[in-house]
Amino acid sequence: MKRKFVSLRIKIIFVFTIMCTFFFGIYGFFAYEKTQKLFSDQINALNQNTTMQMGQNIDFLIDQARDTTLLIIQDQRIFEALKNDGLKSFADEQLIFRSLNTYVGQKDFIHSIYIQGDRISFGTSSTENNITPEMLSRAKALKGYFFFVLDTLKVQSKGEEEVFSLIRSMNNINNVTETMGIIKINIKKSAFAEIMDIKNDKYSGINYIVNTQGEYIIGQENDLIDFNDTDFDIETVKDPSMFKIKSENTSYTLSVYPIKNTDYYLCNLVNDSLLFGELYDLQESIVFAAFIGLLLALFIMFLFDRKVLSPLKKLKKLLKEVGNENFGVHIDHNNNDEIGLVFDAFNKMSIKLDQLLNQVYQKEIKKKEAELLALQAQINPHFLYNTMEMIYWTSRMEKAIKTSEMVHALSIHFRHTLNQGDFLTTVANEIEHCNSYLTIQKERLENLDYSIHCDADLHDIPVVNLILVTLVENSITHGFANMEKNCMIKVTIEKEEDTLIYRIEDNGQGCDEESIRAFLKDSESTQAFALRNINDRLNLAFNTQDSLEFYSQIGKGTTVIVRQPIGGKYIV
After folding, report:
1. Sequence-ordered alpha helix ranges (H) in 419-558
2. Which of 223, 221, 220 is nearest to 202 (CA)?
């Protein structure tokens, strides 16, 4: 019975839809709670750390102002003026004035300095200061410790200006129980604002400073809450802390940092409803999607794995078998979708590949056999004609005295050349063949010398026939033509790892390397026929490229290197 076709596309869309529902439902539900808590904790921790850092910066600023009071108390000129209840001269007054201005200039957050003794007072210019009886009494009661107040100064050409004043008594350094005067260092209110970097941001909140009564000293009051509307008492805060407070049914996160040695508090206020408003909007939809997604996703995932993923894993495994040249594999299935069509096509492909591979393999073997036999047949007449010509000239010159020796050498040469049609021979046979050829050539060329070097343990290695003698013949024919100097041929046979190497060197007239390489690649050229023949036979035998290396310099000689794999797979 024919199976009904159901598109894989429909299956994937269905699975994708369910998976999206699962993701935005189940994961979103749990992620919402976790994200809300994590987001809240991170924002609150960040704001608390920021508040603490700002508070520490304010503490450091106040400590610097306090250190300035210590320097002023130790100033000898000021000490003498307060002790003597007056200044000795106008010059002393100017020196003290410049000294105070120097302290102001060294600290850009200091607005001005004012010192008041029993009968004398002085300070920096352009500012009208006033120490009230309440300030004077409090400073003396603290016996050298300072206190901090918000004060208003009259500045020439600017009018009134609010500052924070650090006030303390100036005791005699030689008698600390003796009060010589009161020092007042006025700190710019803007210095605190710069540290706080006040801005309206729903994440970073609002930074401000209040006193113990909850009155705002620095801050935008229209953006802040009224502590009187809450049950929070800021006076109870002794250490940096974070609180959850409510005002007019709105929840806030409040970070408080008590400013050291003062009656002021640095606060950071974050409106929780603004912070989590965007998350609240998603809550209802996430809860609904979570329930639906949980039920459907688990069921669909099971079906998807069984109907889609498992067959594809099976196909992947069989494709690896095909990659390993195992073309007899087959898939049994009952799929009625695109996966079933792919499986059917795979089975047909596997059978067809197996058939084609066998056909191509047989054809290639026959083709290579034909090419190798044709190449070997081409080279045999080439040697025969050259050898017969040398016997002819030798007979004429020596009147047949050396004929027997040459005929013997010629017989050896023919025996190895014909080789009963065999494509392979041994290193020992190649050396014997080369020796017989050079014996004949030496009778023709009186100035010819040669040497053959080969270790005995290499003699039995199988090699391609007619390689060595062809290269030696090429050196004599082309390298020593019209040469009157001694002609030398050096043949070296050696082994490097799994490769047998022929190295044929001569001191002939050399040639142009690039031209020879070009002739080797041009199958239609009649030039460098012997070298191209060797290169083609070696490449066919070992299924390699460029088995022949050629190096030559004009006037200096030529070196030819042949590489043959030892124990390799011969394609013959």
Report:
1. 427-444, 468-474, 513-521, 529-542
2. 223
Which 3 state secondary structure label does DSSP give 219?
coil
36/273 Cα distance (integer angstroms): 12
Domains of the chain, first to last: 1-326 (3.30.450.20), 362-565 (3.30.565.10)
Query: Which segments within 483-569 are labelled E, that is strand?
Result: 487-496, 499-506, 548-553, 557-565
Specify burial of residue 162 (Cβ count, 10 A radius: 0-12, 13-18, 19+).
Answer: middle
Q: Would you give per-residue pLDDT tens digits along the chain (572 residues)?
A: 556 655 555 666 666 667 766 666 666 667 667 767 777 777 788 888 888 999 999 999 999 999 998 888 888 888 888 887 676 677 777 888 888 888 888 888 998 899 888 888 888 867 788 888 898 888 888 888 889 888 888 888 778 888 999 999 988 878 878 888 899 999 998 888 888 875 556 667 788 888 888 788 887 655 567 776 777 888 888 899 888 888 877 888 888 999 988 889 998 888 877 766 656 665 666 666 666 766 676 677 667 666 666 676 776 777 777 777 666 677 777 767 666 777 777 777 777 777 777 777 666 765 666 566 556 655 555 565 566 556 656 665 666 656 656 655 665 666 666 554 567 889 999 998 898 888 888 877 888 899 999 999 999 999 888 889 889 988 888 888 777 788 999 999 999 988 999 999 999 888 888 877 777 776 666 666 777 778 877 877 777 777 788 888 888 899 999 998 887 655 55
- Cβ–Cβ under 8 Å, residues 440 and 405: no
Among 230, 282, 236, 220, which residue's Cα sits nearest to residue 252? Answer: 230
For residue 372, which of 420, 427, 422, 429 has the smallest C-alpha distance?
A: 422
